[in-house]
Amino acid sequence: MADRANPVEDHYTSHDLGAVILAALRGMGKDIERLTPDDLAPVDEFHGGQRPATIRLAELLGLTGTERVLDVGSGLGGPSRFLAWRYGVRVSGVDLTAEFVRVAQMLTRRTGLEGLVDYRQGNALDLPFAAESFDAVWSQNAAMNIADRDRLYREMRRVLKPGGRLALQEVAAGPGGPPHFPVQWARAPAISFLFTADQTRAKLEAAGFRVVTWQDTTQEALESAARRARNAAVAPPPLGTHLILGDDWQAMFKNSARNLEERRTELFNAILERTL
Ligand SMILES: C[S@@+](CC[C@H](N)C(=O)[O-])C[C@H]1O[C@@H](n2cnc3c(N)ncnc32)[C@H](O)[C@@H]1O
Asked: Full-prediction pTM beyond 0.90?
């Protein structure tokens, strides 16, 4: 649309996404006034490995239930609602894409989690929160659209309390060459910014983080992506991330698996601590 200046937001915006998701849920016999995070997981966990990957990262982070958490690039809100539902933590989500923020808010009301989770539109490079507001910052598969990683990680550090932790799931550049496009986060290289795991780690340390855990999850991601690519050859399930992606979703699923297989992309989880 003409009033959107940002090509990343353009990439993620479709039309009537909320209505499309609700129609799919209704078709599956769900009561759309009383949804659970499990009902939504096929569509709102919009990252490699979906819900199991969120569980793995949450277990690495080890929340106690008292934390204030910020989800950067929160998408449709699957991970943030899951953290609130499973651990009882309060979560704020921030995302560039206005349509995703609207859908995240709508789905959160329908899961009855609006007392624990809130969303706002904003840019990860200029987070709309005061310094030292959060005990944990969380981000899954959002940084691959962000070129200025130094600034991104500095912003994440700024909003964390001293000693607070950062939980990341990120796509990294692998040794196999540039990715095949389209992929879920970009139809062309202009909005895809991948760094190697080593480069990313150096940028995080320079921004004021100490690595607590660093876990290569490429193999798990490949298994999940290969399964989804095989399924993409047949009719899609009624509810899935293809509803978000547009007409070329099958090519995206196939390229995701192929990029991991050829080590053009890698995936990692990391837990970092804000140094003082
Ligand atoms: C692949 S989706 C992942 C969504 C969510 N983290 C999840 O795992 O379900 C990437 C998200 O990052 C958001 N994003 C990309 N660049 C951003 C930026 N500079 N600031 C905030 N959000 C951004 C996009 O709008 C999109 O919602």
From this structure: yes
